[in-house]
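Priority: low. Protein: L-lactate dehydrogenase. Input follows.
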Amino acid sequence: MSSVLQKLITPLAGSPAEPPRNKVTVVGVGQVGMACAISILLRQEGESRLNLVQRNVNVFKAIVPQIVKYSPDCTIIVVSNPVDVLTYVTWKLSGLPKHRVIGSGTNLDSARFRYLMAERLGIHASSFNGWVLGEHGDTSVPVWSGANVAGVNLQSLNPDIGTEGDEEQWTATHKAVVER
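Result:
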């Protein structure tokens, strides 16, 4: 039985490119640079997004009122985990209208999903279309019925894609999205 990749394209190159290495470079040691570096060093591996709630809520209680005090006409974009919970907390703490407090939601999950799916298919990420819905992280849901390459629906090539019966185990790709 042919795989989705075999049905979709014939690889043109011999071996896949070397996977990216996890490396972060912070240029600048001002307040923003140092804050980024410290944040990177303090992320606890294996800690769930929900375990971050109380710690981050305490930080938000200190900074959100100050943001609104000095920038009353601002729009706040929340990217801290767990993003959905903290977006709600930010909205409540800020007193701003709901359209001025925005959470990144599953935008990051969708971007990771597109990248990892494309990598597994051996194509550029911009050639793969797919989305992840729901809450950011562990409870997010990939939309397998909408996953496609150049309009070719992957579910039409593998009706079991994303299910327990999928012999190619495409759900591992979504699992990798959540673990990153």
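The first strand starts at residue 76 and ends at 78. Residues 52 and 61 are 14 Å apart (CA to CA).
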